[in-house]
C-alpha cells in the first residue's frame, strides 16, 4: 500500500472465495431443475465478511430436440457478517429467462436471453468524468415486455457441417412417394 506520494506504507491484501455446491435432477422427461448453494467469503485488509447465496433454475426440452427454454434466479441470498461497521446487505438477485430454437432443416439456432427482470427499471448512472460533468438520467419505469426487450441478448449459432454434410438428401424419382428418414 502506498500514500499519495508513492511511498510504501505497508502491505495490503484482499481475497474473495466462493464455494459452489450444486444439485440437479430430471423432474420429468421434459423438465430438469437445479439448485446451487454458494457460501461467499471476503477479506479486504483487516475486514472480513461472509454471506450465503443460491441459484435455482429449471429447463424445458421439447421432444423434437430443437426447442429449449429455461428460467434462472441467480444470486438470491444475504450477507451474514459484514465489513466493520457497515450494515449487512441483501444480494441483488437476477431473474433470467431464455429460449433457443432451431428450424427443422436450417444450419443455425436462434437464442434469446432476458436478464435482470427483477429490477423493474432501466435506470443507469453516468459517473462524473474527467471534465467534471455529471449526466443525471431520469428514472425509466418500463413495462414488463419493454424491459425484456431492452435486457435481452439475441444469439445465432451456425452449424454448417451438421446440416450441409448430414442434412436432407434429395429424393430420387423412385422414392418420391415415400417418407425419407433423413
What does this protein look like?
Strands 1, 2, 3, 4, 5, 6, 7 and 8 form an eight-stranded antiparallel sheet that branches. The radius of gyration is 25 Å and the shape is elongated. It contains two helices and eight strands. The chain starts with 13 loop residues before the first strand and ends in a 16-residue tail after the last helix. It has one domain (14-120, 138-166). By secondary structure, the protein is mainly beta.
Indicate the mean pLDDT.
76
Going by helix content, strand content and strand pairing, the class is mainly beta
The coarse silhouette is elongated
Question: Which stretches of 5+ consecutive residues score pLDDT under 50?
Answer: 163-182
Secondary-structure element string: EEEEEEEHEH
What Rg do the Cα atoms give? 25 Å
The count of β-strands is 8
Number of helices: 2
Termini separation comes to 67 Å
In this structure, how is the largest beta sheet organized? 8 strands, antiparallel
Which bin fits the share of residues in helices? under 10%
Total of domains: 1
Instruction: Tell me what portion of residues adopts beta-strand conformation.
Output: 35-45%
Amino acid at each position: 500500500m502506498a500514500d499519495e506520494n508513492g511511498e510504501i506504507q505497508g502491505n495490503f491484501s484482499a481475497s474473495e472465495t466462493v464455494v459452489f455446491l450444486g444439485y440437479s435432477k430430471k423432474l420429468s422427461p421434459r423438465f430438469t431443475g437445479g439448485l446451487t448453494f454458494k457460501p461467499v467469503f471476503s477479506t479486504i485488509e483487516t475486514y472480513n465478511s461472509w454471506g450465503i447465496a443460491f441459484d435455482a433454475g429449471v429447463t424445458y426440452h421439447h421432444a423434437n430436440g430443437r426447442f429449449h427454454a429455461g428460467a434462472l434466479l441467480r444470486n438470491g441470498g444475504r450477507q451474514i457478517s459484514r465489513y466493520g461497521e457497515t450494515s449487512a446487505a441483501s444480494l441483488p438477485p437476477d431473474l433470467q429467462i431464455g429460449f433457443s430454437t432451431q428450424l427443422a432443416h436450417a444450419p443455425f439456432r436462434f437464442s434469446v436471453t432476458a436478464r435482470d427482470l427483477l429490477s423493474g427499471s432501466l435506470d443507469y448512472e453516468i459517473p462524473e468524468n474527467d471534465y467534471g460533468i455529471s449526466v443525471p438520467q431520469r428514472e425509466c419505469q418500463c413495462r414488463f415486455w419493454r424491459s425484456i426487450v431492452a435486457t435481452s441478448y439475441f444469439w445465432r449459432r451456425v452449424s454448417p457441417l451438421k446440416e450441409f454434410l448430414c442434412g436432407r438428401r434429395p429424393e430420387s424419382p423412385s422414392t418420391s412417394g415415400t417418407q425419407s428418414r433423413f
